[in-house]
Amino acid sequence: MTVDPIRVALIGLGGMGSTHLKILAGLPQATITAIADTHAPFTDRAAQLVPNAAAFYDPIDCVNNADIDAALIATADDTHFAITQACIKRGLPTLCEKPLTTTAHESRQIVEAEQAAGQPLVQVGWMRRFDPDYLALHHQLHAAGSGTPVLISQRHRNPLSVITFDQRELITSSASHDIDIFRWLTGDEIAQVSTTSTTSSDGNTILVVITLTSQTGIVGTMELVRGPGLSYDIGCDIVTATGPLTLAPTQPDQADPAPVDAQDEAWMQRFAHAYRNQDAAWLAAIAAGTNVAGATANDGYAVNTVIDAALASLDSGRATTIQR
Q1: Domain Gfo/Idh/MocA-like oxidoreductase N-terminal, which positions (predicted)?
Q2: Which of 73, 34, 69 is nearest to 53 (CA)?
Q3: By three-state DSSP, how is residue 291 classified?
Q4: Helix (H, G, I), strand (E, B) or coil at 300
Q5: CA 69/CA 113 separation, integer angstroms
């Protein structure tokens, strides 16, 4: 039986949106029938690559009026809330780049809107869940005899030439990946968070360390740093009751069938497989009628509660209990 490709609106056509455009264009399960960005040059550039797609300069107009079955949102973080709400109102399955919104309050409203719609519609783009190395680590942790996790240590380093985040941006953007991975690996909610930060005397290197404690007592540490001379580097080490587990060393994923340009940043090269697998799994879930293949709207809300608490801890200098 032949199944028609899913008609997708790609909303947000900057760096991340361009990556999804290349991926979706190579997946037979999808056809990009609409594109949108408030920055006209981005829309015009994408229109040259997908000339048969309807071009919009207003994302909400695109959601409301484009001839589409689903939407992929890759706009700026502070626009996610309004666009996702519009998608839910229309009943569109939606893949929204992380974070779901910029506050727990807004993410809770997304969860409630989805519940009112009566079906799961929103998937959050934490692509590490689809990375082969993270999947292997997850499998090892949950295999028989692996033991209960006691400590999960993660690092997330970026060169200053690519990331110029301050302390708060390292928490709101970079840390969301690591918080999601902690919850995904442990299957546990986070009860308390403590944040410390330091900056080099010249201001070029910024380090944020976040310590998490889960409801069952699992401890997590996350090192987030950007500075000159650093290479893109991620890592995850788990101490369990029976011994250690370690994420495979970071290697650029040049073998992925999704196109990777030479100018793509190291993080995109590293996670090329993950992004393609994520988009393909999302499309398969839509075709199957389940709509969501990865992190849910509720996961997005849970991560935002931790981010809010981490920011409060940064400001107060004290551990902060998660409020839900």
Answers
A1: 6-124
A2: 34
A3: coil
A4: helix
A5: 19
Please list the residue range(s) of the chain that carry CATH number 3.30.360.10: 129-271+305-321
- Token pair recorded at residue 309: 């608490």
- Give the Cα separation of 70 and 92 in Å (integer): 5
C-alpha to C-alpha distance for 297 and 155, rounded to whole angstroms: 25
Q: What is the largest CA-CA distance in the chain?
A: 64
Unique residue bearing structure tokens 């939606």: 94
Give the CATH architecture of domain 129-271+305-321.
2-Layer Sandwich (3.30)
- For residue 72, give Cα distances in angstroms to 63, 285, 292: 10, 14, 12
Q: Do the beta carbons of residue 218 and residue 238 sit within 8 Å? A: no
Neighbours of 114 (CB within 10 A): 23
Question: Do the Cβ atoms of 296 and 120 come closer than 8 Å?
Answer: yes
The enclosing H or E element of 311 equals helix 297-316
| pTM, to two decimals | 0.93
Measured CA angle at 13 (ends 113, 280), to 5 deg: 65
Q: Would you state the CATH architecture of domain 6-127+276-295?
A: 3-Layer(aba) Sandwich (3.40)
Q: Residue 119: how many CA atoms within 13 Å on its side-chain side? A: 15
CA distances from 3 to 23, 30, 67, 200, 287 (A): 19, 10, 17, 56, 9
Instruction: Return d(Cα 163, Cα 85) in angstroms, integer.
Output: 29
CA 143 centroid distance within chain = 26
Kindly calculate the radius of gyration of the chain based on its CA atoms and give it in whole angstroms: 20
